[in-house]
Amino acid sequence: MTRSASCLCGATRYRWSGPVGEVVLCHCGQCRRANGGAFNVAVLADVADVRFEARDRLREYESSPGKYRAFCSGCGAPVYSRRDDLPDVLRLRGGLIDDLPAPREVIVSHRADGWDWLD
């Protein structure tokens, strides 16, 4: 099954044909700042399964050594992150994916760093 995704302004779009396996909900301070929310929703995907329709609007920022966060240069929406030590994996931002089905597994990461009042 192929899923489509786009940023807020629609300039950055892609199609993803891979299975929905792991989704990571990360509460670390860096993810909260990068996404402007209580946690990041990262959908793990093989690079080979993702086809960008408009790569020219993507910009990458090296947020820590070897880790890059991509965003749309038009609206600023986070699109994915990637790491040098895992070159075949993208962490797609879940909020951009149309009709994201339930994943095989949900992993909660850095929950102790999250807000105490959030269940």
Estimate the strand proportion. over 45%
Measured distance between first and last alpha carbons: 32 Å
For the record, the count of structural domains works out to 1
- CATH class term: Mainly Beta
Summed up, the helix count is 1
Low-confidence blocks of residues:
none
Characterization of the model:
This protein is mainly β. It has a single domain (3-113), classed as Metal Binding Protein, Guanine Nucleotide Exchange Factor, Chain A, CATH 2.170.150.70. It has one helix and ten strands; from the N terminus they run E-E-E-H-E-E-E-E-E-E-E. The strands form two sheets. A seven-stranded mixed β-sheet has the order 6-7-8-9-4-3-10. Strands 1-2-5 form a three-stranded antiparallel β-sheet, with no helix packed on it. Strand 1 (3-6) and strand 2 form a beta hairpin. The longest helix is centred in the N-terminal third of the chain and has 7 residues, at 29-35.
Could you give a quick summary of the protein structure above?
This protein has one helix and ten strands; from the N terminus they run βββαβββββββ.
Lay out the secondary structure:
Elements: E1 3-6, E2 13-16, E3 22-26, H1 29-35, E4 40-46, E5 50-52, E6 58-64, E7 67-72, E8 78-83, E9 86-93, E10 105-109
Parallel strand pairs: 3-10
Antiparallel strand pairs: 1-2, 2-5, 3-4, 4-9, 6-7, 7-8, 8-9
Task: Fill in the keyword field for this structure.
single chain; 119 residues; mainly beta; Metal Binding Protein, Guanine Nucleotide Exchange Factor, Chain A; seven-stranded mixed β-sheet; 6% helix; globular
